Amino acid sequence: MNYVWEVLLKGASQGVAAGNIRFVPARVANPYTEVAFEYLNTGRLSAGSLDTGSLDAVVSAGSVGEISVEVNPLYRFNSVFAGLFNINITGLQATREAVFDICMHYLAQLDLRSGLDRQDYYMRFIEQDFNEGIFGREVREAVNGLTEEEGPICLYHLLQLYRTGNQRDSFRSIVTSLYKRPIMYESNDANNEILLYLGVAENETERAKIDCLISLFLPMQDKVHLFFEHHFGIIGVDETMVLDEMVLF
Predict the structure, then answer these.
(1) φ, ψ at 101 (rounded to 5°)
(2) CA-to-CA distance for 54 and 211, rounded, in angstroms?
(3) Which end of the chain lies in a sparser environment, N or C, as judged by fewer CB atoms within 10 Å?
């Protein structure tokens, strides 16, 4: 980690909130990096990030009050901070440290947002709606249960649904993106009936995830028959007619 924005990203991946990270002026500034860890190759935030450089006791949200990270503000912003954070000026120490922390957090957030386009902002608005429970408590809990890779995929396909209005195709796309070998059948007799094989073991997490996708992407009148680990038997297709590996439907 060489930059303040990398510290926030690493903290987020470890479950450490940005509010629990405090940026402080480096006691000994390194002219080649922005953040000053004792070990240059530090890959995780830890309880010893500032004092001992220990890489063992990894911090999780709530296990400590704060993590202090030393920063050299002159590495990229010499013209801005050379006078404001002059180490030769004393007095108002607490105020100066608070202003320093606020400035570093603000600049880190600017860095993180510098590569966002309009689609990224739309996806963040949808994510905010999820977190605020606008889609309902069950959907919020299911979305929060998605992995770090699955969350953005869900937001992207939901945004595509808003753009195209094609619910069935959007549902097919999100299912094939989140599952390795799903098979989706559409009934010839009933337009609103779907048979969906997922190819994963059924558990509470998987059930909540697929129920969430159905409620988000399909119209209410659609009826979905779910098959998790075992495919339903199809006469004439030997692969689906294996004993103990098929479901009667």
Answers:
(1) -60, -45
(2) 44
(3) C
